[in-house]
Amino acid sequence: MPDREAKTGVDVLRVPALNKSSGFTDEERERLKLRGLLPVAVLNQDVQLDRALENVRRKADAIEKYIFLNALQSRNERLFYRALMDHIEELLPIVYTPTVGQACREFAHIFQQTKGFYVTPADRGRVHEILGNWPDEDVRIVVVTDGERILGLGDLGASGMGIPIGKLALYVACAGISPRQCLPVMLDVGTDNEALASDPLYLGVSGKRLRGAAYDELMEEFIVAIQARFPGALIQFEDFQTANAYKLLNTYRDRVLCFNDDIQGTAAVVLAGFYTARRLIGRSIKDMKVMFLGAGSAATGIADLTVPALVAEGLDESEAHKRLWFVDINGLVVQQRNDLAAHNLPYAHDHPPMDFIEAIRTIQPDILVGATGTHGAFTEEAVRLMAEIKERPGIFALSNPTSQAECTAQEAYQWSDGRAIFASGSPFAPLTVDGKAFRPGQGNNVYIFPGVGAGALFCQAERISEEMFLAAAKALAEEVDDSDLASGTIYPPLTDIRKVSLNIAVAVAETAYAQGLARAERPADLRQSIADGMYDPRY
Ligand code: NAD
After folding, report:
1. 350: which of 216, 221, 222, 244 lies 20 to 30 Å off by Cα?
2. 0.85 exceeded by pTM
3. β-bridge partners, 328
4. 3-state DSSP call for residue 315?
5. What are 224-255's pLDDT values in tens digits?
6. H helices present in 424-492, as ranges
7. If you take atom 6 of ligand 1, which residue's CA is the nearest one?
8. Distance of alpha carbon 144 from alpha carbon 146, whole angstroms
9. Is the CB of residue 503 less than 8 Å from the CB of residue 526?
10. What's the 296 CA to ligand 1 centre distance in angstroms?
């Protein structure tokens, strides 16, 4: 809002970016005409933070905590971000997965104050015009979804807006992007989820999803309008249904500064997990075999980034493909199957068809990666078999939310006599199995996307390259120290996320400069310059 600084009186209290509530000093209360509008005590932000946390912690339900934090964000933005940044381990599972999944499911019922921007088919021809209604002019990051495949929860229509809102909150908290530069977008094209649409409180476009050429045209208009309104802004695609996710990425990746977090962000965080796991497995990643259960966008994205990582270690492309195996709902992905999607074909090997268990026994993978969206897909038999054939079996149960994970941390450790190298998509609490303490690692995309976005924006990258994600994965793996590994986790503590994101931003910007993709001049001290520009929520 251009006139934000000019506001006085109650208008100041109503702007979340300006409001400090009881934190306004006496001098500010005088100058901003706030005298009488607030209780007399002047509290500093630390004390306000204590009160906010007290309120979060008194709520028994995660969704109630979410609702409180969401309201805090609408009331006092700086206090919200201070809380999120200083207590990321505690609050990330509320603001993002797994609670955000429930928040999306219940979006229409817990809705209080609008956040973000909605584009609908009725806006066709006017998207550029209505984007002018957004109050901030310097938007740098747009996270957009059409709500068709929210986490592992399927089509949530306009209720999926919780995802772009949550992801952008993490850009701010983890990589120091200013909240004024963030734009969450719901491309609300209807929903095929009839139960949702028939809810009288549903907030989205009623009726079946727009598809085909009309959908593509609306998306194209949106992308062009974003570029015209906010030149140089990064567009992050989020939670699109798999076929669409690939189509959008392939259509726009060379034209626009954009990436798909489900495909590329996931790939980098899991590749970082491979880099780290090799320290426990004791083999180079080029000598490891990985078997994916689930052959959708997440798994294929991981494989597509792992191939160049293996090539960088000396394999040729066809050898690299042979290290990667897929099993989907119909069994091992092999050439003789005729039900495969285009993105499966490079990984369809010349091999007899077989089921998951037989495939583990025959191929003997070092790491199993689950991206099925199906709880229980890593059965006891599968994990026990992995533990039988490998001293340190990698068991990555990536599906979100926690209830959808292929197996739990407890199961992975129990069924492998505590030898599993376990990672999950959603968090599992520290646990003790057979007297041994474990701190399960979370392969959360939050380790990657904020740093990638921040690095690309800092150097004004023309586009996001595969090499940038490879650099991000390496930078993340370097943050894992031996004490992390000893406690069973292959990712750094979330409390280090600002440092991790900064290092990734530096690695991504370095890559952009090296590839000639950066438009901004390189500063003498890249790290310091990126760090200096980070948002600070303290008053
Ligand atoms: P998708 O719908 O594109 O693919 C799902 C795949 O799983 C399909 O190939 C399907 O055939 C297969 N499948 C389903 N049930 C199966 C079963 N029982 N056995 C074998 N295969 C089965 O979905 P996606 O975008 O690839 O996402 C999959 C999961 O990955 C989601 O639950 C999502 O939460 C998770 N994910 C995790 C992260 C992360 O941890 N960082 C990031 C993105 C996605």
Report:
1. 244
2. yes
3. 331
4. coil
5. 999 999 999 999 999 999 889 999 999 999 99
6. 449-458, 466-478, 482-486
7. 294
8. 7
9. no
10. 6
